[in-house]
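ok trying again, last paste got cut off:
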Amino acid sequence: MSELLNRRLSLLSQGDNLSLLKQCLHGIERECLRVTEDGRLAQTPHPEELGSALTHEQITTDYSESLLEFITPALADPAQTLKSLESIHRFAYTQLGSEYLWSPSMPCPLPAEEDIPIAWYGTSNIGQLKYVYRKGLALRYGRTMQCIAGIHYNFSLPDALWPLLRQAEGQAGDDRDYQSAAYIALIRNFRRYSWLLMYLFGASPALDAGFLRGRAHQLEAFDADTLYLPYATSLRMSDLGYQSNAQAGLTPCYNDLSSYTDSLRKAVATPYAPYVEVGTHKDGEWVQLNTNILQIENEYYSNIRPKRVTYSGERPIQALMARGIQYVEVRCLDINPFLPTGIDLPEARFLDAFLLFCALEESPLLENGECGQCTDNFLSVVKEGRRPGLKLRRDGHPVELKQWADELLKRIAPLAELLDSSQGIDGHAKALAAQAAKVSDPSLTPSAQVLASMREHKESFSRFALRQSQQHAEFFRETPLSSEEQQRFERLASDSLEAQSKLEREEEKVDFDLFVAAYQASILAISN
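nice, full thing came through this time. structure:
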């Protein structure tokens, strides 16, 4: 443990400081495909009974009309966050008819590329902007890739914690800049150590054979309908997922907030020749928002993002530059197909301890090829994390995954203890012990359990996933929401439909082309 971490642990374990850790906030976003009874992609529109995908704060769609996204509020107790996620699932199942929510991250057998429906958000300018953005994603990466689902874990430390650390460490400058620098330091450490999360929680070692659409690959046949890698933890996070030549040269630097926002701002403003060739219109219809490396900053696919809640009409980069980093969004988590909501409390508790470790531990700048080493380690683990004797690279030298994972868990243990003592529980220590057991015995990892279940039932990936989806549907349906909760969700749905309708009625009819131009100009107007 570094001297800096020791000092910070000591400071935070004192009196009132300890109770600060009860104020960390946790939010979860869970994506999942709607599928038919026989496990095919649902071609039905977003159910109106769930509300408006444009204006509902908790139930929306991601890329496809069939790809639901459930969003919890950010709450201090992760158990309450998970309870909120479970309630959203329960409500959804009251409105889905005979459809199911697909249990894993990798998609069901998909129809022809052009038959995957793009999400529609109505006729308002902002609704159309979201639709055209998704048309651009289809053009750039294909629709198939956009049907992969994941879990995003949003985490923040209380604002009052940063001034406390800044004063104790005698740092000049203001609290906001210190807070942003501390979150960027967390992200650097996350880049160093996130391979561990892929080993512990990766749950996509196999996929439906049709997913690759005949592309060349290095996967093995599990059966006639399934491709896999025997030691893979997360094919979702491998280079099978998003292959973007345009983004290949875009590695935002996590040395400070301004270099990060600068690299994204440039990418949103820099033309990319193959996209320029296509143009923004075809036969008079919009096909992408612009011909630049990124249409908008959210198009950059990363394992973790610095975030700040945006005001109406404000872009993510504008919010970060104006008011600094407020929280981080962890984006590399697979949906665990054995869990009804795809994530459980032990995983959330471990993530809290892991992220607190990343925030408080020494975090030097990523220099001398360390960025590339981080990427290589991550890709090694997603493709062969359970391979016996697998070696990663640390400081340029080979180290066994098992040895490094054990060492990391020992370094995270004091953070788990600190969180437990702040809340008067032992849940974080127990969550840590469960992860240590997976390091000792790879058969306990979700990725190993997926393959074991498929073998035991002699079934393809898709049959396994449908069976799990059916079990989860039963779980949610057998314990309905209270009538008050059900009515609350129904009210949220109808209010959101009314909000969308009002927006479409009252919006000053700015020509859509002008609206897009103004939206693009807003990013170019941000000065260095």
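cool. Residues 303 and 458 are 33 Å apart (CA to CA). The radius of gyration is 23 Å.
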